[in-house]
Specification:
Shape: elongated
Largest sheet: 5 strands, antiparallel
Structural class: alpha/beta
Strand order of the largest sheet: 7-6-2-3-9
Oligomer: single chain
Radius of gyration: 28 Å
Number of helices: 6
Length: 233
């Protein structure tokens, strides 16, 4: 009887017919996880590029604001302009529509877009070289507007954007327009584990044709933006 058992064990050790199936049972789950993670990562990279494109495109459109008249060096935007810029995100980043439908929210709640005009004041006021500058919002609006009556702090150029700070290299004479975009990316696979990273991008541009862009309130204004208190329109 013992010899029969030994023979059967020896035969089992020499039998390789099930080895491929056994290896596949161990490897397949790992390969599936890696494939799904690769899909989620690719979609994340694409979403990051699209958020960049939204910020840059809206910033470029804002920066091209024309003077209000031939005798002035300032320009002005209205709620009509800003609403158009805001809604252009649907065309620039169409995936936001499908993501909003999946999340069960309006597309405008699926992505936050804010716009503002920031003016720099030299210190002392008559300074012409090696000046220190204070940055304050002239007007601000959108889904998550920057604060009014607030002196923005300086941060390193490579730092993560925040609504209460500006990169060091934008401080200088004149003004800039700022567009902030924030989008929560929902992976197909990793979301089952509670993973939903936020993609935040900001663009800073000097106006092309004017020294300062104001906000002008007109009939029917929907409140998308407003001049900051103490700022002349």
């Amino acid at each position: 009887m013992l010899n029969v058992i030994r023979a059967k064990l020896a035969e089992f050790r020499r039998d390789y017919s099930g080895m491929a199936a056994t290896e596949m049972a161990f490897v397949a789950p790992i390969m599936i996880v890696l494939a799904l993670a690769g899909v989620d990562t690719t979609r994340y990279v694409i979403a990051t590029e699209q958020v960049d494109k939204v910020a840059n495109t809206i910033g470029q459109m804002l920066s091209e604001t024309q003077p209000t008249s031939l005798l002035t060096t300032t320009g002005a935007v209205t709620y009509v302009d800003l609403q158009f810029f805001h809604d252009s995100a649907m065309v620039i980043f169409p995936d936001v529509l499908s993501d909003a439908a999946t999340q069960g929210v309006p597309w405008s709640k699926d992505i936050e877009i804010s716009m503002s005009s920031i003016q720099f004041t030299p210190s002392p006021a008559n300074c012409t070289t090696n000046c220190a500058y204070t940055a304050q919002a002239v007007w601000t609006g959108g889904d998550n507007p920057r604060p009014c009556n607030f002196s923005f702090t300086q941060i390193a150029d490579a730092s993560v954007p925040t609504l209460d700070a500006l990169p060091q290299d934008v401080f200088g004479p004149g003004s800039i327009i700022v567009v902030d975009v924030e989008y929560t990316y929902h992976p197909w696979f990793a979301s089952y584990f509670g993973v939903a990273p936020t993609i935040a991008r900001s663009i800073y541009l000097a106006p092309r044709y004017v020294s300062l862009i104001n906000y002008q309130t007109i009939s029917g204004d929907n409140g998308i933006a407003a001049m900051c208190p103490g700022q002349a329109s």
